[in-house]
Amino acid sequence: MESRHGGVVALKPINEVAIFMKNLVPANIPETYALKPVIENIASTENVYKGVIAFRDFIYLLCDCLISDGHTYAKPPNKPAHSADYPFLYYLTNLLVDVGYHSKFAENGDSLTLTGIPILCPSTDRNGKRTNSKIPVSGRIDCFRFLALCGFVFKGVDLEAKSFNISEEQPLIVSYPDNPIMLTGLKAMSVADMELRATRRYWNDNHLLRCDYRLIMTEDTDALDALKDILHPLPGNLRDFVIKLHQRYIGMGLTCVTIIDDQYHFAYSDIQNSKRVYKPRDIYTVRIWEFSYSLKHGYCIFVRSKKTAKYAEVIKQFPQSLQENITKGYGCDRKLRNERCQKGCQGIRVPVDESILEIGDDIVTWLDNEISC
Fold first, then answer.
1. d(Cα 40, Cα 56) in Å, to the nearest integer?
2. What is the dihedral of CA 122, 143, 154, 50, to 10 degrees?
3. pLDDT over threshold 50, residue 175
């Protein structure tokens, strides 16, 4: 039911959410790279390399299981607040993090052992306030059943039971028979998720499921490498177009910052002449344009043009549809057009599909003029 400013959030089917998640997983992971010290303590360097790749493959399998069977496990909330609002995904992610982070390897290295899983236990904060476990009792067994569907074996869990309560007396033994080295990758990526993230770790995010191997590397990675990871599902001509845009504006002195929230942003800002010290979020707020991949809009370019009056004659040379898009401008959908929120404040949206290749030169001209002005 629509209200004056729009109605209920349109919830994407879980299979579409899973396809989106799968596209965020890096297709190409280097065979060797220097590891941060905390990761070197987990296992041999070679085993960490193999484990991370095996964990990446496990995430692919997990997404495939969500595509085929997710509707059985991932129930949407009664009042969705986001287009990807499936609590089951948060339960699953945090359970995996806890298993990886709080466990110890068995002597043979083929299984993990832990007693007590924080995500399943009530907690008390420093003020003495007691909170319930993050995963409701009714949802716990579904998490274990789904992970079993993905290849996990749990000794100490009755998958036929209606619910599951962790016992601190009886250890939980976790194995992954199809490829035991995956458990090394799970532990490495769980430690990275808990200790090595540059941004705050929130309970309701799925960062672990992106297999962000760059967190465990000692050297800083170039934004171009991360961009190539996100672009890999696209046809070659579209990948080349976005990469050339990136290289062009980095070459012109713009700064690119990567921001990950409910979507993946590569934001380009001109801060060359500023004396201010910018944090990544600050750079994002002054972006001129960005490349984005989101569940709602897919692959897009957003331009926050503010100087169009200075090159109005140039805009008149563009195709009619692009002229209209630029003339319409950007901003809050509710305030500008009395429409429900479409993230209009993000900028003027141009989908990255085959049609963008027809106006590729005009996009470059548009951005060049916006930057020069």
1. 19
2. -110
3. yes
